[in-house]
Amino acid sequence: TTAIQLCEQSLEAPASHPLNSANALARLGLAHVEAENPAAAIPLLEDALDAVTPIAPTTSTTGVSGSKRWH
């Protein structure tokens, strides 16, 4: 069983939260990146981003280290 097959199987099951689906899409996209298949990876990564955009926090602050963190 490959990473791509495992990710595809996880997307067949109903997700308990939209973030879980987005995570599975992103991991499947990254598996395609690793397999040097950008044509398959790009739409999956775009779908993952589209899935998290509505639930992502919109406010961030700069921490001590200069990195952004969500509230």
Describe this structure in words.
By secondary structure, this protein is mainly α. It has helices spanning 3-12, 18-34, 38-52; strands at residues 60-62, 68-70. It has a two-stranded antiparallel sheet. It is flat and about 40 Å long. The model has no long low-confidence stretch (mean pLDDT 84).
Could you give a quick summary of the protein structure above?
It contains three helices and two strands.
Strand order of the largest sheet: 1-2
| Gyration radius from CA atoms, angstroms | 15 Å
List how many beta strands DSSP finds: 2
Structural class: mainly alpha
Q: How large is the count of helical segments? A: 3
**Order of secondary-structure elements:** HHHEE
Head-to-tail CA distance between termini:
38 Å
Low-confidence stretches: none
What secondary-structure arrangement, pairings included, does this model have?
Layout: H1 3-12, H2 18-34, H3 38-52, E1 60-62, E2 68-70
Antiparallel strand pairs: 1-2
Helix pairs in contact: 1-2, 2-3
Please describe the structure with a list of short key phrases separated by commas or semicolons.
71 residues; mainly alpha; 8% strand; flat
